Amino acid sequence: MSGGTRDLIHIGLFAVVYMVLAFLVSNSYYQLIMTIVPVWAVMGLSWNLFSGYSGLISFGHAAFFGLGAYLVALCMIVWELNPWITIPLATVACGAAGLLVGLPTFRLRGHYFALAMLAYPLALLYIFEWLGYQEVALPRKEVAPVLYMQFESQVPYIALALLLLVIALVVTSRLIHCRFGMSLLAIKLDEDAAEAVGINTLAWKLSAIMISAALAGAAGGFYAVVLLVVTPLAVFGMLVSAQALIFAMFGGVGTLWGPVLGAFILVPLSEILYARYAADFPGIQGVIYGIAIIAVILFAPQGIFWKLQVLLKPGRSLVLGATASGMNDRADVGLLKVDAVPEAGVILEAAGLSKAFGGLQATNNLGFQVKTGELLGIIGPNGAGKTTLFNLLNGFIRPDSGSITFRGNAIVGKKPNRICAMGMARTFQVARPFTQLSVLDNVIVGAYVHSRGNDEAALHASAAIKLVGLERQCDLPAVNLTNKELRLMELARALASKPYLVLVDEILAGLDPDAMKEMLVVLRKVQDLGITVVIIEHSMQAMVQLVDRFIVLDHGALLTEGEPDSIVRDPQVIEAYLGKKWLADSGHEQTGVADDN
Amino acid sequence: MDALQTLENVLQSLVAGLQMGAMYGLMCVGLTIIFGVMRVINFAQGEFMMLGMYFTYFCFSWLGAYAFLDGVWFPFVLALLAGPALFLLGMILHRLLIHTVTGRKASQLEAGGHYAQLVLTLGIALVLQNGGLFIFGSTPVSVSNELSYSAWEWGPMVGDRVSVFVNQAQTISAILALAVVIGFGLLMGKTRLGKSLRAASDNPDAATYMGINVDRAHRIAFGLGIGITAIGGGLMATNASFQPYIGTEYVIIMYAGVVLGGLGSVRGAFLGGMIIGILQQVSAIILPNQLQNTVIFVCFLAIILLRPQGIFGQRDRVA
Amino acid sequence: MTTDTLLEISNLDAGYGGVDVLRSISLAVYAGEFVSVVGPNGAGKSTLFKTISGLVTPSAGSIHFKGQDLLAIEASRRPHLGIAHVPEGRQVFPSLTILENLEMGSYVTDRRASADLLEKVYHWFPKLRERHGQLAGTLSGGEQQMLAIGRGLMADPAILMLDEPSMGLAPAIADEIFERLLEIHRENSLGIILVEQRVAEALHFARRAYVLEAGQIILSGAPADLQDDDRIRQAYLGM
User: Fold this and answer.
1) Coil vs helix vs strand at B103
2) Beta strand C68-69 with C60-65: parallel, antiparallel or unpaired?
3) What percent of chain A has pLDDT over 90?
4) CB contact under 8 A, A540 and C171
5) Containing domain of residue B132, as a range?
6) Is CATH 1.10.3470 the right assignment for the domain spanning A3-312?
7) What residues of B are in contact with residue C117 (Cβ under 8 Å)?
């Protein structure tokens, strides 16, 4: 049974229980609460779908909520349109608004993004106040009120609210169990690493904000119908955005039921306290929410739900939701094999590459070739510019001048996810795992770029895991891995994208001799599949036994290249590593010119 | 409306803009200190301004009865005293809450702790805002004396037309605001403490190697930022009435000014605040009341989207 | 060999995120000595300095400075004891001027001593006096290195720790800096711990040296003895 199906069952059960409760409760105030709570749960889900998964904190979801509310209200007043039509319309319109907001705002990150999002609802608040819509009341319809979503009893309202919540839950469930959820989560955990494995981060973020905005708009529209009055502060105010955030955070960010849990606990609490004490204690709602946020951030930053989940079932695959291991045992390592390429010979070529950071010339007119199928080592002393070179090849940095050709195509200027799709994968010097995901999920994220569905991705991921030898650890959360296992996982994630060429950045650093030997064996196996490997290392010791050829960098430029035997004895290389005086003082054999210190 | 009347309106707005701008500038400086040194965006900054206003108001109410304190200078002194008072509050808050999400410990949290900082200060804002509503009540109050209602007349400048009325209280507030900013600039530029704060902000690791306690530096910076904004609030209290929710209105003004000047630049923050103040007052000539603030929003969004680093900021601090 | 042990490290284990980079490190530095610590990259040299300075907390072992247990002292208090750190990559305060950087260096010394120290630093590095009002962020690599060293000296330390001062510098400039360092060491009997990747320079100036590889000390002794030892070559070059 997949995660999606199981969620549907849970949702169904929940809906049934809730409706039964609705019929049992007779106090009209409680009935109102039962109507409001699902609306806020939907807001929480909406926020969660975007910010909870992508990690981009939106303080402005009130913008969409308010837009939805005003759209429905004004359409009813001005054009006599009924909410059965206008709520869906508002949903679509707000989705479009999400796109409009996302396009310019996604160029910002961190603080700036949060500030910009804060501005949108406040701006709308002032605009609507100015337009004269201080208080918009929906007219009571005498004739055929049901047509206008106006009912005698409170129960139909509850049913509609529940329907909205169910829709939101189903949408969220569908999304988080497919590559949407995983890609967003990957973006949140490490946006650069996500780019490097082929995820088009911009496209996913835009999709997320559109769907999120649409849900918020629907919630707002329905809210207008329930309360029958819309004021700018009530729908655009900071408290609305704060509530969306709080319910998701309190209940559990990045989960399906977390926001629902948060809303179901906090809304009744604050509503009841408000009813009881508002006269004596105005502002009590805000204080409760404020304290809730502070408490959550200090003690359980991930929300209650995660704490529960960790206790119940650690390390299950989020994607596959399988109760057993998600690993596909039928996967064969040969799935990753690279066929002989027609353009045999040179798979990657750099020419005249230069890059300066401020005054420092990190890469200096560098040119070299990588032969198809070889295992090439790039070495050089600290500060020689090796990682900068990888960042240039992989698309994270743009060179000041020069060209890079991969499999016959010029790639300068292309984004990393594009380059990954073309067949170049990479690992990072400081391991960048998606910490909260299991090993298998981490590798599956890498497999998405060349797989059509979850099953195919799981297949390729399993093959990669087998290749590196991590079958036993495949369900462990990445945080629990040893150094060596982390490196192997990084490699597997890169390999799952079925690359032609893989850039390996200092995968041996800090490993003890046994682990190092193991790693070398794996790298050989990778080469045996026909994949070209370019590896950066400091430790010559290990490399010398592994590589076919060396390129030596110093101060960002090419010092020399050749086979291991000759490189290690080359005086220029010795000088670069050990210093000029070594040759002079130590009396080691020199070939050629007398030392001229 | 003839040309002379327009001229008079424009001049009047400019004067008002300079006065308001100076006070906005002061508040912006407070906000930018916190970001510049600690890289924390404090969503509760408006609420601390509000606390500064109420501090001034309550001291004025309780102590104003004493005859010897009855001078016109009294509210202004109180506004200045709001600084040290809120400085202490800021230090306490940092030690209790803020430091849990900043500093080296925080870099292990998700997204380097930024997320946690934003949300924590949002929580504090909600508590202060609504707690304020409970404690202070929702009726607007103000601190005014004769100076608030007196003005110097500058002019007539053209024949017997074109006079500009310069409100005395506002002018004194603006001058005091400027004085505080200059004083603060001297503190940061010339004193050992100020230099150590700048060093801690430039490079916390190297600062530790020098023997500077970076945590303490952050605490002081936070206190300073809160205190300075509170003085701005206190000065503004002599101008207009206020209620506990006033912080939200000014948050965007402060951020607009700070971002315009460049996050982390003190000079920029003051200048940014001035520009925003002038823009707001001048736009009042052509736009109706409610839209004045929308102008500020539009500016804010425009800056963030087009030139996020502002006038004096550096490129690398955008992301 | 002088008898005063200034810095003593015993069986130190330290690392990041639970992974130990340094394993069972023991070394000693005597008063006024020039000691070098060499080793290939990733050997843990910077981690050693960071642990001494307090930015990294060791999982086992002890560090004593002038007889005091350093690990019991908070990181920002340690410079007060007389141990100064010139970090890898210079790490100057870019928005402060040269003079202000140097003033920060003497954060732990009293005002009278600071004025004298400043004169000395200007004497060794005249370029710093010339440009004392220039923002440190605009200096060249070599100038920043001189500033970083000057800043360390302003604390009037008993031991100056230098982390790869030659990194990213042209050989000629690196040479000049090493020469200057040697002069300062001789004139003031200043204790120096030099961490360098470039073995030759490091061994040339030191009285004693340690060789660090994969987190452990594999060799130690006088440079003359170490230079003929093939194990160094193997550590760096693999054969």
Assistant:
1) helix
2) antiparallel
3) 23
4) no
5) 8-63+72-159+169-251
6) yes
7) none
